[in-house]
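Troubleshooting log. The previous structure file for this entry was overwritten by mistake, so regenerating from the original sequence record. Sequence copied from the archived sheet and checked twice against the printout by T.R.
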Amino acid sequence: MPKRKAAIAVGGVAALGAAALLLPNAHASQDKDQAADGAGTAKTLKATEASGLAAQLQKALGDAFAGSYYDSGKQQLVVNVVNGDSNTVVQAKKAGAVVRQVKNSTRDLKAAAGTLKTKATIPGTSWAVDPRTNKVLVTADSTVTGAKWNRLQSTVQGLGTGMATLKKSAGTFKTFVSGGDAIFSQVQGGGVRCSLGFNVTASDGSPAFLTAGHCGVAAKDWSDSQNGQPIATVDQAKFPGNDFSLVKYNDASTQAPSEVNTGNGQTVQITQAADATVGETVFRMGSTTGLHDGQVTGLDATVNFQSETDPNGVDTVNGLIQTNVCAEPGDSGGSLFTQDGGAVGLTSGGSGDCTSGGETFFQPVTAALQATGATLGNGGNGAGGGNGAGGGNGAGGGNGAGDQSGSADPSASASDPSGSGAGDQSGAGDQSGAGADPSASAGDQSGSGAGDQSGSGTGDQSGSGTGDQSGTGSSDNGSSLTGSN
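Regenerated output below.
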């Protein structure tokens, strides 16, 4: 298989102006009383260790378990306990957790989420349990106004005092088409651009990769270059409900290394699928905005996207990971991972941008693997960080992957939102950016996909890449991680 095509087997972005991997530089805020009970007895844990301990305590504590989160500053697991007797508290402390007595049980919080689903499934809304506040966090985007807002507000108030928090988001919830190592498909009316998430091995032993489900629903055949010949075919796709696709490489000899290429010669070896833990630091790769980090803020989130195939419909996705990692149109399907090589999520959608921030949602990788029967990539050497996929101006101002064999040009940062791309990114209709010629947009394609094709560029994108980017570059986020995991 040609190296250029094999390079798409890297689950991330190689063509980035930001050529350094960020160190965690922000921590989730914690409740002031979180460690009042059990301080000094808790173990110092990595996030992955905390996730494992949380799972153990959930089984051991039963109905007394009311959620948990990771205090990344103290590197401790905080476990919420409701109606727990002294033995329950002692058991959790001996296991190495900080114990916090709370009011709302897991059952109560799930019941509240069920009420929201029944009474407030409104396009532009989301909800997820926040164990740090022991409440359901309900978010409404900028489209939820008038009667819709009143309905949502009334539903939240009806849940009772101290059960939920309602907040407004300045942006619009939408799927983020494109991102990661760029993959392309041609559909009726124009082109679709999405991103590769993680390489996997399908249950029949063939090489494949995971990406967003709304991408797999939108198009069946995928290429590594604009208007190029297909190199992979969708085998399974799920959207709405979930948001994942399994796409098999057409060439069975394709080497699909289990790694994320972060540019500048660095890769993060992906060694395992990891469940997210509230409070842990995670990293997201995207061809529009590059590399960004943030914290997991909620689990089992429900998001109600406005359907683009039905003006009066809603595409609801459940079981998502909620974070404060920024994303923009052009980042959909890309990798969410941990510093130590855990594959956590696939970029689904969200609101806001990388200037003002916002909420983002990710399909858990563990759930996608279980549903498809796939396993993480074969770990082969492949092309590693060789020649990139595609080579065109990406969506929403991000530059596509060009020749990455030389030194990076720091001025060509993919996170610069002023680059060529779709002008209006605030609505659900313009999500996948435009080509090199903004006037060549394919326009509204809401009838041809699952809501992720609108505004896809059809202009000539070849030769518009960021050039040589595997050398030294600069990150707008500062810190760097030396070496690779």
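The longest strand covers residues 290-306. Archived copy saved in two places this time.
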